[in-house]
Amino acid sequence: MRKCSLSEINSVFAEISKSMTLYLPVDGSDGSSAFSQWTEGVKWSESLNTTKSPKDFFFPQTEDLMAFKTSGKNIELTDIRKESEDFVVFGVRACDVRSFDILDRVFLSEPCDSYYATRREHSVIISVACSHPSETCFCTSFGISPENPDGDISAWKTDTEVYFSPNTEKGALLMDKLSSVTEECSDEAVVKQKEEISKICSRLPNSKVDTNTFGGGKTAELFDSPLWDKLSEACLGCGTCTFVCPTCQCYDIKDFNTGNGVIRYRCWDSCMYSEFTKMAHGNNRLTQKERFRQRFMHKLVYFPENNDGIFGCVGCGRCLAKCPISMNIVKVMKKFGGEKSEK
Ligand code: SF4
Ligand code: SF4
């Protein structure tokens, strides 16, 4: 394990930036925070979760895929992708690190999405433990450890120091480069912080949210439940929950005629939208109740059914904070009985 003084963290950022582009959470003037590129003078945000998750690094909200021109029966294709340079994402929380595993299962399975794969290959993830988990957090319900986040390097921030421990070859290589701005240390402070985080998590309001009611094989039991009517009644279909979610991965592909050829691009879509998956014959899900049910059944039943039991939610709490009608996955889980009783 290595550490640097918190007051010297900019030396670490500067060292990383010598060879790779560095992104980290930065506070905005409106009180929100977002991942931004680090340059001298940019301050690492203290906030827990960025408003939008770091999935944009691998699956951007909009992305040009290719260009083409047609002439009679001929089509001329141009690969216009900008190959990624190596980059580091610092300050990723444990829930968001787990979201990359979920996205990997979607985008890296055959046929592999080469746009996504290239960015994953070029990235180094430095996670940071959540010393102050929020009331909206429930990542522990999905077996995630906010005190011990994954990533290429795990980091822990105390009031005076930042500690680093590599988990992968990529992480170890980067730590080697940081040897002049970090020093070898014991893990005593980290062990103490881990214990404190675990205690805080056990007292969080959503710490009792339980996944037992859900999982693969529960479609017949849950799909026709009358509970969906009431739960979905006030849903506006705004899609906010899907856009802030680190694991939502629906997208649309569209063509834009520039007047000098066509650009094919993709952009995020939302299963909460009435036009999502609309086809020539019409729409598969005609009501907001069906669309609402789809979002939660996908994360809590269909995804684990097809992915070794892994749920498609990481308990980041963003949808709890952002839904304009205060509906969210925790309320859905509790309504279906997904809450541990007090001991
Ligand atoms: S469903 Fe909500 S809590 Fe779960 S990962 Fe998405 S935004 Fe986070
Ligand atoms: S659940 Fe909330 S955030 Fe999601 S679409 Fe409905 S109203 Fe919007």
Characterise the protein shown here.
31% of the residues lie in helices and 20% in strands. It has 343 residues and is of the alpha+beta class. The protein has two domains: 2-61 and 71-203, no CATH class; 219-335, no CATH class. The chain has an eight-stranded mixed β-sheet with strand order 3-2-6-7-8-9-1-10. The protein has a four-stranded antiparallel β-sheet with strand order 5-4-12-11, with no helix packed on it. The longest helix is centred in the last third of the chain and has 19 residues, at 288-306. It is globular, with a radius of gyration of 22 Å. Bound molecules: iron/sulfur cluster (2 copies). Residues 244-247, 299, 313-319, 329 line the site of one iron/sulfur cluster (SF4).
What sequence of helices (H) and strands (E) makes up the elements?
A: EHEEEEEHHEEEHEHHHHEEHHH
Helicity, in percent?
25-40%
Sheet with the most strands, sense and barrel status = 8 strands, mixed
Using only C-alpha atoms, the radius of gyration works out to 22 Å
Count up the domains: 2
How much strand content do the residues show?
A: 15-25%
Bound ligand species: iron/sulfur cluster
Trace the largest sheet across and list its strands. Answer: 3-2-6-7-8-9-1-10
Poorly predicted parts: none
User: What would you call the shape?
Assistant: globular
Q: What would the average pLDDT be, to the nearest integer? A: 95
List keywords for this structure.
343 residues; alpha+beta; 2 domains; eight-stranded mixed β-sheet; four-stranded antiparallel β-sheet; 31% helix; globular; binds iron/sulfur cluster
